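Suppose a colleague, Dr. K., hands you the sequence of a protein chain of 144 amino acids and asks what its three-dimensional shape might be. Before reaching for any lab equipment, you can write down a predicted structure in token form. Begin with the sequence itself:
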Amino acid sequence: MREFATAIGRAGVAHAEDVQFKLGEDVLTAKAPTVGQLGLFFQNGREGGFRTVESLFCFMSDILDDADWRKVENHLRDGLDIAVINDIAVYLIGEWSGRPTPPSSDSSPTQNGTGRKSTGKRRAAGRTTSLSLSTGSATSSNGG
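The predicted structure, expressed as tokens, is then:
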């Protein structure tokens, strides 16, 4: 019988790093997820209903340490809308996927070059994905 090792290493998302974010007055740190954690989140989240909420909470509890997850639970007990947790998950996945962010409003505009124009194909606008808590379906939209 063929044997498969499970302790070879953590199969993380390429170039993903821990991300800090603020929830109320609390500063939390989300650990970069493994490919498996992301796969389970998306697979279980598409089932809809309570399974979607369960998937969201499992994912968030996996990427936060115990103390930070307890802070999230306390916010939820105090009335925090689940949609906020969904927004955090979407934000974090965007950070880990390297999705481009809008330029800072205080950055200076780029100058027009004097060289030849690029002949390469224009890249498609950014794509975002969010999980619908009411239906559990993943929705995608093309930016631009």
